[in-house]
């Protein structure tokens, strides 16, 4: 911290204090020139030179007495932290020129102080820090990111009461007693829509300091981990025009500690957000230049946050997976600490489902005095908002299809509202079905070709409204949609397979991401068009990207419109007879892998074999069937495979990974062979052909003794690796 100005015995007319932000290993020269000598008490020129070895901040004090003077700096132009003029009469033609004056205190008489090129100077000075910050943020998690263009928002004139209550809390000057507002409620009640609308309103009014939305994406899980949270918030704070002093301090912190983003969340938040705010409060703000000072940070979807998985010393992911609750509690602890800090000027609006770990945190004694809960329940009259939602959407349908104003009948609209049970997810899904899509018309059965037919189907699917639970009507709606599929059981297998099939990814904190659609089709489609057959009727619930080259290039992926539908298909109790377990889904993927193997190599080109060779299941049991029964059902497909072609392709791929895939397959085909009898035909077919091709290719393969030992023990390790590569034994 720069020392305050001190008056010495000889009358001090001006004391100049500067904090120099110098580039690494930079050279500089500062001079203070007196153009009019003052009775010989001061020299005409007072100069200081410095050569910092490692860059950073250098403090200098220069004092002189003169009525005409100038400051010069070269290079670079520094940031002047404070400048004090004590009762000095500066002539009109005299000038002080610096890159930036953060705080100026002048005496009784005023002259001219000019600021030149501060923006350009700062941009150049902090170029590396900005680049580092951008690299560690997740821009797609900001509420108004282009990737979130279809994120839910409240329809005009809906959820007015709850939005007014939240905005009143944001404006409340006594918010520090309740610095965190937790907006919660059951699935489908519109929490994200409310927070999204609040964020938009606050952004328009200049009240939004920053936002972060935890939301899954098919491409990676960067938006569902804590990794980029602080960097993303810090980036938004430093670019807010109402916080001009914050920018310099955040970027200075990154300059000093470029590895700050490798630290834990508490350290990152302290260094990049709390400490800069403390410095500003201690020294006094430099003003916002007339801009509105922001008041709120919005964080949505905390329940979607998944735990980062860390690697051990060998670079492999640790065997014991970290639960997501660990990272959720860490985030909440950091936010609570900030809310209790008097230098933290923002309130925090946080949205999530009322999951146990999150609710336990907010009901703890440590949090209760600082937080407030807003539960989206009946007190906010959701039925009135849902009625308005239906009216608006149905009027569009009437106009589009030239339906009479009397459609639908009043009792039908009433039933739609009651069936929703306060859940906007039901209303939104129902309207997607009624509106229809270009893809759904030719695939839906039960004469669902018009909005009238689709509405009747929805109403017929509902339970008796009286006494039913909210999820029951939603589940009945989902079941009804699935029943319109030609083969509902096949559809469920496809849905679970899409969720299970992953590809390993070093870019993802969890080490994996969803398989791209072209790979899903390659593995699962036993005939052309099967995807459309299985999923075509689900256009109201699932986005299926077109199978075009353009779509692949743009990285389009499967996208479920509501998490509530994912919850449904993953719950045995809610799905009933339609339920497909994770094990059944993996057996389905394995079966289809062998059934479609003959198509793989002609449809995979070099640039894609990396992804193909990095396929993975959530359980890590690639190729392995869960039971002897499942293996026997797949035996015909196994025997029909061109094993030699598969082995040659894998062995000669650039991404063979020292036999990783070879070892997995060698183990999988033998897994259900009895030790006391000869191997099954499928095992003999695969193993003999694999050994033949690998031996001819110069690979190291298991010895006859090792193969014999594997008949009696599953603990024997196979030894496969290409010529010239060291052995990597794996079971």
Automatic annotation (TrEMBL):
Matches recorded under SUPFAM superfamilies: P-loop containing nucleoside triphosphate hydrolases
Segments traversing the membrane: none
Biased composition (Basic and acidic residues): 41-50
Record-linked InterPro entries: NPHP3-like_N, P-loop_NTPase
Region: Disordered, residue numbers: 25-50
Entry-linked Gene3D superfamilies: P-loop containing nucleotide triphosphate hydrolases
Keywords: Repeat
Domain Nephrocystin 3-like N-terminal: 164-309
Protein's recorded name: Nephrocystin 3-like N-terminal domain-containing protein
């Amino acid at each position: 911290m720069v020392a305050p100005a001190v008056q010495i015995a000889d009358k001090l007319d001006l004391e100049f204090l500067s904090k120099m932000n110098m580039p690494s290993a930079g050279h500089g020269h500062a001079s203070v020139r007196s153009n009019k000598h003052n009775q010989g008490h001061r020299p005409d020129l007072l100069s200081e030179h410095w050569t910092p070895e490692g860059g950073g901040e250098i403090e200098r004090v220069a004092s002189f007495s003169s009525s005409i003077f100038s400051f010069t700096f070269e290079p670079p132009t520094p940031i002047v932290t404070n400048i004090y003029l004590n009762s000095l009469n500066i002539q009109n033609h005299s000038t002080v020129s610096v890159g930036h004056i953060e705080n100026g205190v002048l005496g009784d008489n005023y002259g001219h102080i000019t600021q030149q090129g501060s923006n350009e100077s700062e941009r150049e000075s902090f170029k590396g820090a900005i680049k580092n910050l951008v690299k560690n943020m997740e821009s797609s998690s900001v509420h108004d990111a282009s990737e979130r263009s279809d994120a839910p928002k409240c329809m005009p004139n809906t959820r007015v009461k709850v939005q007014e209550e939240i905005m009143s809390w944001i404006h409340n000057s006594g918010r520090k007693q309740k610095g965190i507002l937790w907006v919660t409620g059951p699935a489908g009640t519109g929490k994200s829509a409310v927070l999204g609308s609040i964020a938009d309103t606050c952004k328009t009014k200049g009240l939004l300091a920053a936002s972060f939305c935890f939301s899954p994406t098919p491409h990676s899980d960067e938006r569902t981990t804590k990794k980029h949270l602080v960097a993303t918030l810090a980036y938004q704070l430093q670019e807010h025009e109402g916080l001009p002093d914050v920018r310099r301090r955040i970027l200075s912190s990154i300059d000093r500690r470029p590895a700050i983003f490798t630290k834990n969340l508490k350290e990152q938040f302290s260094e990049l957000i709390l400490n800069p705010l403390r410095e500003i409060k201690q020294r006094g703000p430099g003003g916002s230049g007339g801009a509105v000072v922001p008041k709120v940070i919005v964080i949505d979807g905390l329940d979607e946050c998944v735990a980062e998985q860390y690697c051990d010393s060998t670079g492999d992911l640790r065997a014991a997976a970290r639960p997501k609750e660990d990272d959720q509690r860490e985030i909440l602890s950091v936010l609570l600490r900030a809310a209790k800090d008097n230098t933290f000027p923002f309130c925090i609006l946080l949205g999530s489902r009322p999951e146990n770990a999150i609710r336990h945190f907010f009901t703890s004694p440590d949090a209760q005095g600082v937080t407030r809960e807003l539960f989206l329940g009946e007190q906010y009259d959701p039925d009135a908002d849902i009625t308005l939602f239906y009216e608006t959407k149905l009027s569009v349908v009437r106009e589009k299809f030239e339906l009479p104003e009397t459609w639908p009948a009043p009792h039908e609209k009433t039933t739609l509202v009651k069936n929703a049970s306060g859940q906007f997810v039901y209303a939104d899904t129902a309207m997607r079905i009624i509106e229809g899509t270009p893809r759904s018309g030719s695939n839906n059965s039960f004469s669902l070709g018009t909005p009238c037919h689709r509405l009747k189907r929805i109403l017929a699917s509902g339970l008796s409204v009286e006494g039913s639970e909210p999820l029951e009507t939603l589940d009945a709606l989902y079941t009804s949609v699935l029943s319109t599929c030609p083969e509902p059981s096949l559809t469920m297998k496809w849905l679970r397979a899409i969720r299970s099939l992953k590809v390993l990814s070093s870019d993802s904190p969890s080490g994996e991401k969803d398989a791209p659609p072209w790979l899903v089709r390659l593995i699962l489609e036993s005939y052309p068009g099967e995807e459309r057959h299985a999923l075509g009727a689900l256009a109201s619930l699932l986005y299926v990207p077109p199978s075009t080259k353009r779509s692949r290039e743009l990285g389009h992926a499967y996208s479920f419109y509501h998490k509530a539908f994912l919850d449904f298909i993953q719950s045995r109790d809610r799905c009933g007879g339609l339920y497909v377990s994770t094990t059944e889904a993996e057996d389905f993927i394995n079966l289809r892998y062998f059934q479609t193997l003959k198509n793989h190599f002609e449809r995979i080109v070099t640039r894609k074999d990396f992804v193909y060779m990095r396929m993975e299941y959530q359980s890590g049991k690639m190729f392995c069937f869960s039971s002897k029964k499942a293996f026997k059902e797949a035996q015909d497909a196994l025997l029909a495979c061109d094993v030699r072609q598969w082995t040659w392709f894998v062995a000669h791929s650039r991404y063979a990974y020292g036999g990783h895939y070879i070892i997995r397959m060698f183990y999988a085909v033998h897994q259900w062979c009895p030790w006391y009898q000869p191997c099954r035909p499928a095992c003999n077919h695969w193993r003999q052909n694999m050994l033949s091709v690998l031996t001819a290719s110069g690979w190291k393969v298991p010895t006859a003794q090792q193969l014999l030992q594997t008949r009696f023990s599953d603990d024997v390790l196979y030894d496969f690796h290409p010529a010239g590569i060291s052995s990597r034994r794996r079971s």
